[in-house]
Amino acid sequence: MKKILLSAFFLSFGYLLNAQDKEWTLQECIEYALENNISIKQSQLETELAEVEKYDAIGNFIPSINASASNSWNTGLTQNVTTGILQTQTTRNFSAGVTASMTLFDGLRNFKELQRSKMSQLAAQYSLELMKDDISLFVANSYLQVLFNKENVKLIQAQHEVTLEQLERTEELVEAGSLPSGDLLEIRATAANEEQRIIVAQNTVRISLIALAQTLLIKDYENFDIVDRDYDVIGAEILGTSVEQIIENAEEERYEVRVAEQNREIAKKDVEIARGAYLPTLGAFFNYNTRESGAGRLRAAGLDPDEPYRQIGFVQGTEEIVVAPNTVTEIGNPLPFFEQLQMNDGVSYGIQLNIPFLNGFSVRNNVKRSEINVKRAEYELEQTRLDLEADVYQAYVDAEGALKAYEAALVAQNAQEQAYNYATERYSVGLTNAFDFSQATFNLSNAQSEVIRAKYDYIFKLKVLELYFGVPIANLKF
């Protein structure tokens, strides 16, 4: 047993180490966020509530059946149910019943409530999908930001290695008397500046990783990291599609429009439900009840010894007296419990019709409120479409601008590389000073960093545009 526990411990410990050393891919981050994000969980609760509302509507078609039972004791001055005499006593009474009722017609409100619940369920599902899209894009943007920061660190480190090589060569030339000592100081200052930039860039990577981990609700910040890989520009062909076509697809596919459309249909259904209150309501009911008492019952105890017979009349004509046995009664034990229930049971059933005539204008006012809500929902749908159109235009312009910025950054990088190579050649033969060489190095580093930034910005904005075009978040390629 001890060996088994030790084996289980080391297996668990090894699993934890693997989990901590795990490097997350973009797809894994998105999937994890979709499973654990609090906002998504809240939206999922809304879908569950919508499901409950649907079953509420279904339940309105089912008869209501309720049973009741009570057993009570009364103590004090009360009338004896057997003798009719007031006396101080304790009595026990039991009663039970079953009641069933069902709505036969209520202006079709039950049927329309069921339709409304299905609409609410669909709207909740659309809201959930919209939330998933938003969270996925947010995670993707945070992930790409981490990649950019990491690439930036690599660039600065690579440039720093070149600077260190130049520093070593400059030291040799200064010692040989080919370069002034001021050039050596300039190169050393450049190397120190790059070391400082490396530290700042590494801190930026750490901060961006922590921000991504917080988005994913991962607490182990120290061991959280992502897969360090380069992403190509995929999906640039979307810019060949007209913005009008993208807007048309967005209005058909985007969940924010579907949510607004469902809310409008729900508001219309609320008007129908409110108008149903103008119509009569017809219901049916059935009731079975019985009772039992612990009070004693009157029973015959035999002839009265003092007057065994009593006169009850006489025969007309003969005047003959008619007598009957004069019995006396006494209070005996109550009948058995189940026998009383059987003797005292009864049923009642029938139908009930309610016709509304005047209810303080409540029905009319509810209809008016519902009609106003329809107009509000229509305005919200129109505004949603306008906002979506503006967002698509903005996303399209942003993607085009990001493409131009990326292309310009590539051109600038190429120019700075040539300038750097030229400055390196001139510096090697002593035709330029260390300051000009350091400036060329700094300009190249900035140009390379701008290419990376523009690239990932372009990739993200392409994905936003693809999402508006109707590409599912799971099908977006990075």
TrEMBL record:
InterPro entries: OMP_efflux, TolC-like. Keywords: Cell outer membrane, Coiled coil, Membrane, Signal, Transmembrane, Transmembrane beta strand, Transport. Its main location: membrane. Residues 1-19 form the signal peptide. GO terms for molecular function: efflux transmembrane transporter activity; porin activity. It comes from the Bacteria. Belongs to the outer membrane factor (OMF) (TC 1.B.17) family. PANTHER family: OUTER MEMBRANE PROTEIN TOLC. This is Transporter. It comes from Salinimicrobium marinum.
